[in-house]
C-alpha cells in the first residue's frame, strides 16, 4: 500500500519537474518550484494523508463559494466554532485569543494571539486583519462580502467612495476594534466562515492575481503549506511544523483530482486513498455501506445542510407563483431520496435543515400531487406546458446530476418539457452569479450554525439572490431579513426567521427544498483519528488525523 501511495505522490512531483523544465503553463507552480521540492525532501510522502478533490479554478477563498479545503487547512480565522454537548453553538478563540463586546452590541474589540507567523515567517498583525476585510469588500471577484458588510463603512468602501473601512480601528500591533452598523447576534459566527480566513497583507498584495493560483504566493497561518499544484493531477501540502497551534498529526496532504467514480473506488481498494467520501463513488456506496470488510472503518455523521432546486423568478414563466408551486408539487421527493441515497436522509420543507439552530420541524409538508400541479399550470396559462432548461455544474457530484435526471420526467408528466444541461464550472459560476441560470440543483452546507447563514445568503438582498440565480423580487421580505439580523432577543429573532422561511418557501415557492442527509466515509487501514466538525465535514479536521506505518 505504501508503495502505491508513494508512487502516486512522486508522479505529481515528477510532473512538476518536467513542466518547470519544459515551460508548460498547465502547472500552477511558481518559479521557486525547486525550493518547494527541496522542502519536500524533509518529509516522508508515504505518510501523507491522501484524499480526493474536485480541481478548483482558484483557492482564493474570498472569490469562491465551493472550494474551501485549502482555506480550512492552510489558513485560519479569528474565531472557530463547535457545538457543545447540547448541540448549542460555541465560539472558540483562534487567531484572536480574546475579545470583548460593548453593551450595545456594536463594538467588538479583539486581541490577537502573540507570536503567530505565516508559513513564510512573517508575523501576524492587526493590519493583516484590516487588509483581509477591506480586500473582501473590494476585490472585483469577491463572493463573500456579506461576511463583513455589516461593518460601518462597508458600503462606502465597496462602492469606491472611500479607500478604507471606517468601522475598523487599529489599537496596536495585536489589537483592533470593529464597529458594526447594528447589533448582530451572529457576527462572531460569520467570522468563522472559510471566506473570513486571514491573509498576509504584504505577500498577498505582491502576489496580485497569483494569490489563490500559485502555491508560492498562497500562504497562511494554518496547519499545512501548499508545495505543488499540478493541473489535472493534484496538490501536495506539507505539515506546517511551526504552526502556532502545534504541528498537525500527519506529514502532509496529497489531494488528488479524480472525478470518475469507478476509478475512485479502484484507487481506494488498491490502498491509494485514505479518506473515501461515499458521495464520490456513485452506486458503489452501497458496496461499502453493507460490505462486511468495511464495517469497522465506516464513519457516519449528520450533515447540516440542504439539497435544493433553485428557480429563477426573473425568467418567464418561472416568475409565476403558480408555475413554481406546480414544480414543487410535481416532485416525488421521498422517491428522489430513496433512489439516490437509499433513503439515508430527511425530507426538508423549508430553508433551515435539521440540525441547524432555528430549524422548524412544524413546517407543513410540501405535498406530492401531480394532478394539482397540472391544474396550477393551467391556471397560470400553460395548459400545454412549456420548455425548461435545468443546469448542472460540471464539477458537481454525480448525485446532483442524478437529482435533475430523475426530476425531469416528473416535470414532464405535468407538461414541463425539461432539458438537463451540464455546464463547465467556470461558465456555470459566471452565469449563476449574473442571475442567468433558469433552474439548477445544488447543496448548501452550513458555514456556521445560525439560520442567517442560509436565509441571508440566498434571500438577504438583491445582490445575494441574484448571485444565486434566484432573483427573488420581494423587497419587503428582504428588508425584514435584514432587520431580523439586528434583533437582540434570540427567541424573537428565530420566530421572525421562521416566519420569513414560511413566506419564501411555502407561499412564494421561491425554491424547492429537497432533503438533508447523513454523510458517510470509509477510511483506509492506515488512517487513524477521523473526526468531523459540527456540520459534518471531515476536511477541516485533516490536521487531527494520522497515518500509521504498516510495516
Explained architecture:
The protein has 551 residues and is of the alpha+beta class. The protein has 3 domains: 2-74 and 206-274 and 524-547, 3-Layer(aba) Sandwich (D-Maltodextrin-Binding Protein, domain 2), CATH 3.40.190; 79-198, Dipeptide-binding Protein, domain 1; 303-517, Dipeptide-binding Protein, Domain 3 (Dipeptide-binding Protein, domain 3, Roll). It is 32% helix and 21% strand. The chain has helices spanning 2-22, 33-40, 69-74, 126-138, 154-159, 187-190, 201-207, 261-269, 285-290, 321-329, 333-341, 370-379, 398-412, 425-433, 452-459, 462-467, 475-484, 490-507, and strands at 49-53, 79-83, 89-93, 96-101, 107-112, 168-170, 175-179, 224-230, 234-239, 252-257, 275-277, 298-311, 345-347, 386-393, 416-423, 439-445, 511-523, 527-528, 546-547. Strand 2 (79-83) and strand 3 (89-93) form a beta hairpin. Helix 10 runs antiparallel to helix 12 (370-379) and helix 17 packs antiparallel against helix 18 (490-507). 47% of the residues are buried.
Amino acid at each position: 500500500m505504501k508503495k502505491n501511495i508513494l508512487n502516486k505522490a512522486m508522479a505529481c512531483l515528477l510532473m512538476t519537474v518536467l513542466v518547470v523544465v519544459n515551460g508548460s503553463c498547465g502547472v500552477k507552480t511558481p518559479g521557486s518550484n525547486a525550493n518547494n521540492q527541496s522542502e519536500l525532501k524533509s518529509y516522508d510522502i508515504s505518510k501523507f494523508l491522501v484524499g480526493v478533490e474536485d480541481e478548483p479554478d482558484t483557492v482564493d477563498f474570498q472569490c469562491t463559494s465551493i472550494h474551501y479545503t485549502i482555506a480550512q487547512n492552510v489558513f485560519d480565522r479569528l474565531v472557530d466554532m463547535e457545538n457543545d454537548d447540547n448541540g448549542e453553538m460555541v465560539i472558540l478563540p483562534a487567531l484572536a485569543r480574546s475579545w470583548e463586546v460593548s453593551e450595545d452590541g456594536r463594538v467588538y474589540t479583539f486581541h490577537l494571539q502573540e507570536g503567530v507567523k505565516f508559513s513564510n515567517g512573517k508575523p501576524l498583525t492587526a493590519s493583516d486583519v484590516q487588509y483581509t476585510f477591506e480586500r473582501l469588500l473590494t476585490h472585483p471577484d469577491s463572493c463573500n462580502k456579506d461576511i463583513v458588510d455589516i461593518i460601518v463603512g462597508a458600503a462606502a468602501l465597496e462602492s469606491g467612495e472611500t479607500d478604507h473601512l471606517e468601522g475598523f480601528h487599529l489599537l496596536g500591533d495585536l489589537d483592533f476594534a470593529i464597529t458594526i452598523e447594528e447589533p448582530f447576534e451572529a457576527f462572531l459566527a460569520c467570522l468563522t466562515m472559510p471566506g473570513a480566513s486571514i491573509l498576509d497583507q504584504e505577500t498577498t498584495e505582491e502576489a496580485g492575481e497569483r494569490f489563490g493560483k500559485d502555491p508560492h504566493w498562497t500562504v497562511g497561518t494554518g496547519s499545512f503549506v501548499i508545495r505543488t499544484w499540478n493541473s489535472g493531477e493534484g496538490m501536495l501540502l506539507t505539515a506546517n511544523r511551526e504552526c502556532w497551534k502545534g504541528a498537525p498529526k500527519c506529514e502532509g496532504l496529497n489531494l488528488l483530482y479524480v472525478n470518475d467514480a469507478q476509478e475512485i473506488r479502484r484507487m481506494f481498494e488498491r490502498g491509494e486513498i485514505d479518506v473515501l467520501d461515499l458521495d464520490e463513488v456513485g452506486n458503489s456506496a452501497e458496496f461499502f455501506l453493507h460490505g462486511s470488510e468495511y464495517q469497522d472503518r465506516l464513519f457516519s455523521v449528520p450533515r447540516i445542510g440542504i439539497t435544493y432546486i433553485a428557480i429563477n423568478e426573473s425568467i418567464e414563466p418561472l416568475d409565476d407563483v403558480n408555475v413554481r408551486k406546480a414544480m414543487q408539487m410535481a416532485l416525488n421527493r421521498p422517491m428522489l431520496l430513496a433512489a439516490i441515497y437509499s433513503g439515508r436522509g430527511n425530507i426538508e420543507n423549508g430553508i433551515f435543515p435539521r440540525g441547524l439552530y432555528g430549524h422548524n420541524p412544524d413546517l407543513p409538508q410540501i405535498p406530492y400531487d401531480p394532478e394539482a400541479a397540472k391544474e396550477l399550470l393551467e391556471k397560470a396559462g400553460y395548459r400545454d406546458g412549456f420548455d425548461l432548461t435545468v443546469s448542472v455544474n460540471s464539477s458537481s457530484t454525480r448525485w446532483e446530476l442524478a437529482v435533475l435526471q430523475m426530476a425531469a420526467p416528473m416535470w414532464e408528466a405535468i407538461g414541463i418539457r425539461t432539458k438537463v444541461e451540464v455546464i463547465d464550472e467556470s461558465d456555470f459560476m459566471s452565469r449563476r452569479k449574473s442571475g442567468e441560470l433558469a433552474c439548477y440543483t445544488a447543496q448548501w452546507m452550513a458555514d456556521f450554525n445560525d439560520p442567517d447563514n442560509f436565509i441571508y445568503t440566498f434571500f438577504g438582498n438583491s445582490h445575494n439572490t441574484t448571485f444565486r440565480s434566484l432573483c427573488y423580487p420581494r423587497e419587503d421580505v428582504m428588508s425584514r431579513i435584514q432587520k431580523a439580523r439586528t434583533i437582540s432577543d434570540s427567541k424573537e429573532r428565530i420566530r421572525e426567521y421562521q416566519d420569513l422561511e414560511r413566506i419564501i418557501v411555502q407561499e412564494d415557492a421561491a425554491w424547492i427544498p429537497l432533503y438533508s442527509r447523513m454523510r458517510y466515509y470509509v477510511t483506509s487501514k492506515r488512517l487513524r483519528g477521523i473526526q468531523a466538525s459540527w456540520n459534518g465535514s471531515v476536511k477541516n479536521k485533516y490536521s487531527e488525523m494520522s497515518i500509521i506505518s504498516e510495516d
